[in-house]
Amino acid sequence: MGTSEAKIEARRFGFYYGKREALKDVNLKVKEHQITALIGPSGCGKSTFLRALNRMNDTIIGARAEGEVLLDGCNIYAPGVDVVELRKRVGMVFQQPNPFPKTIFENVAFGPRVLGLDRKVSLDEVVERSLRSAALWDEVKDALNKSGLALSGGQQQRLCIARALATEPEVLLMDEPCSALDPQSTLRIEDLMNELKEHYTIVIVTHNMQQAARVSDWTGFLLLGDLVEYDKTAELFSRPKDKRTDDYITGRFG
Amino acid sequence: MPHPRESFDRHLHELQDDLLVMGSMVEKALERSMEALKTRNLEMAHHVIEDDVKINQKRFDIEEKCVELIATQQPMASDLRVIIAVLNIIVDLERIADHAEGNAKIAVMIGKEPPLKPLIDLPRMNQKTVDMLRRSLDAFCNRDAEAARSLCGEDDEVDNLYDQVFRELLTFMAEDSKTITRATRLIWVGHNLERSADRVTNICERVVYLVTGKMSEICVSKY
Q1: Is the pLDDT of residue A194 over 80?
Q2: How many CB atoms lie within 10 A of CB B179?
Q3: Does A238 sit within 8 Å of B5, measured CB to CB?
């Protein structure tokens, strides 16, 4: 750990909702093929930062970014960047499993259909590969024409992960992906994340500090828009350098 | 609404109180075992031996509480370090108590044999060890890494006294072979005390870990 390259690098990155400063001068390197967790109390800016990594905040009126976010060295906020192409490379999984009201197959096939598929691969293959990667294939392979909404919460979330993987992203952003799931499904997703990091770079926002400690390689602690501390997870949770980090992760505030 | 950490903080305080209680039990064992040796008080020696069971039990009780806190509270950062430090310190305390018990057993072994010499340096070693032990636990309570570090240096005094005891008893044995049994037993006493003081330096290292998060050997004892 520590030797791998930065897949994403935020440089003096700031973000505003109108006049409100949500992120200040954040400098952070997300390492390739590692899981980076962002923690902090509500309103600290962690979700803003996550969404900034594929420009999901762009649609918010009055929102404005400062500084740079480099993906493989190229600033995603530079003029002329194709946001659709960016979001293909940087996929996202949300808090509530949100499958489309379509069949399991169509849920996964949706992205490749919209974005256009590599003609050498059939849609069937993409769907199977994505469902396998999301550790869902064995459970749904005989029910691909059933509605995605008929699955359990944990399965729905894995379906959403499969949907995100179908467009072959390089980075997976996960915003509280387990907060609506029971402990068993949560552990499945965590196991899955560990498998996925071989091929993808993962950034996760979580309120559950135990989860951040369990699943991530690196952890960043944000407070009031500041990145207070960013370190290897084992280091941050056993001997944080900043008193505010210690106070937060020991539950003294937040 | 109660503070979210109220119950956890109370448990952490209890843990610290338990550690101090165990520490004072160990101090008492050291003091009484030396008193038994000095005054040839066999009854007191037997008390120390019996009380060691209570110290062992106390150590398990504290360990049990630590395990419960880890299992139920998922402590992190400084909280986690308190618990890990306590888990380590109780092992050192328990072992110091075993050394005290060992000295009480030697007092029983010596029994009513005529004394080889009045005990002077051994009680000094004992006193120094008790003093260091007490201050190491003070440093724990005060989260004082500096005090813990400087305490480690004082272990040399105990080592030097041990050298002195050893040389003196060797002279006895060289001059009169009939003293060998009694002198050897007193060397064992000195050895137990030297080991005990070393254990105190381990406690000091845990205090430094608790405060700074760094685990390292602070001083390497001569023995």
Answers
A1: yes
A2: 17
A3: no
Please check whether residue A213 touches B, CB under 8 A.
yes
The kind and range of the H/E element at B149 are helix B145-153
Query: Domains of chain B, with CATH numbers?
Result: 6-212 (1.20.58.220)
Tokens of residue B35, six digits: 């008193």
Residue of A nearest to B215 (CA): A239
Please list every residue in chain B whose beta carbon sits closer than 8 Å to the beta carbon of residue A239: 77, 81, 212-214
Distance of alpha carbon B98 from alpha carbon B92, whole angstroms: 10
Query: CA nearest A251: which of B74, B142, B83?
Result: B74
Specify the pLDDT at position A4.
55
Domains in chain A, ordered, with CATH?
Answer: 6-249 (3.40.50.300)
Interface predicted TM-score (ipTM) of this complex, two decimals? 0.73
* Beta partners for residue B113, in sequence order: none
* A238/B76 CB distance under 8 A: yes
The SS3 assignment for A223 reads: strand
A252 touches chain B (CB under 8 A): yes
Strands A35-39 and A201-205: parallel
- Letter for the amino acid at A49? F
Return d(Cα A32, Cα A36) in angstroms, integer. 10
The structure's pTM equals 0.83
Q: What share of chain B is helix, strand, coil (3-state, %, to 5)?
A: 85, 0, 15
Please give, rounded to a whole number of angstroms, the shortest distance from the CA of A213 to a CA of chain B. 10
10-residue mean pLDDT profile of chain B (223 residues): values are: 74 96 98 97 98 98 95 91 97 98 97 92 98 98 96 96 97 96 97 98 97 86 76
CA nearest neighbour of B207 among B118, B159, B140: B140
Q: Is the pLDDT assigned to residue A38 strictly greater than 70?
A: yes
Is residue A251 pLDDT above 90, yes or no?
A: no
Q: What is the DSSP letter of A147?
A: B
